[in-house]
Amino acid sequence: MARLGRFAIAQTGGSTGSALGRAQILTNMSFVAGMHALRSEMSGNAVFPLVSCYSQPRPRVSGKFLHSKLNASRRGPDCGPKAPPGDSPVVMLKKLTKFVWRLREGVPPSAFLRGLLVRRHFPKAGLILSLPGGPLPIVKNHGGRIVVESCSFEGGVRFEVYEGATLSIGKGTYFNRNVHLVVADSISIGRGVKIGWDVVIMDTDLHGHFGQPAHARPVVIEDDVWIGCRALILKGVRVGKGATIAAGAIVTKDVPALSVVASPNAEIIRTKFGPSPVNLAASAKP
């Protein structure tokens, strides 16, 4: 041990008075003790390793742990998850191809630039097209959650999302001019929905009546629904897949899938790919 101490002091240049010198001595003693123990184990001698009280035993590390650490270091210094597939060159090429395809369809380049201005209001969104010819869509988020996939907007569209509310819009949905959405609870719009101009969709009364508070109930519009101009869809309504709402209809109750509703009462006038309810009623008469 005396020889070990002299070797450690010699490695520090003989300085033992300062705190830095004493720390260096302890470090050198730990290193020399570790080398001594390693040499003893390799020679097969049962010698107790001379380990300083300041050295901590290193845990055994498995090969699987080292392999995971190596993969994490390759992904970056933050050791986080792998990069999303959206960053891959193949996906970027697909997006570029879709962009060129849109231009060939006749979408003006300004729609992409305006869409970038609108997209900043959506924390999660796909490709947003804001077609020229009117004011940019207005998005007023008062503490709600908005999830938008790739969709198109005409000028004058307005969204109002209140605190704690959720608005979700599916891919391929189209909003014509001056569409107004008011969300106090939840509005879910599916994929491929086409909404005409001046349509109002709201899941709340906005204000109470006779001293009662305002009520809000979710609105669900399923995929491939067509909504005519100036239709009004109120709280608690579910519009089935493939349904059509004619212009000026006021929808206060659920609309079955593949049905067509019209008039201010939103009456079912026919069903797609099937007989009309009016014809069914007439044929049932004796």
Features:
286 residues; alpha/beta; UDP N-Acetylglucosamine Acyltransferase, domain 1; 2 domains; eight-stranded mixed sheet
Can you describe what's shown?
- The structure is a single chain.
- This protein is of the alpha/beta class and 286 residues long.
- It has 2 domains: 2-56, no CATH class; 108-270, Hexapeptide repeat proteins (UDP N-Acetylglucosamine Acyltransferase, domain 1).
- 29% of the residues lie in helices and 22% in strands.
- It has 6 helices and 20 strands.
- It has an 8-stranded mixed β-sheet with strand order 2-5-8-11-14-17-19-20. Strands 1-4-7-10-13-16 form a 6-stranded parallel β-sheet, with no helix packed on it. The protein has a 6-stranded parallel β-sheet with strand order 3-6-9-12-15-18, with no helix packed on it.
- A hairpin with a 4-residue loop joins strand 19 (259-262) and strand 20.
- Helix 1 (2-11) crosses helix 2.
- The chain is globular.
- 21% of the residues are buried.
Radius of gyration: 35 Å
CATH class call of the largest domain: Mainly Beta
**CATH homologous superfamily of the largest domain - what is it?**
Hexapeptide repeat proteins
Q: How many strand segments? A: 20
**Sheet with the most strands, sense and barrel status:** 8 strands, mixed
Strand order of the largest sheet: 2-5-8-11-14-17-19-20
Shape: globular
Broad structural category: alpha/beta
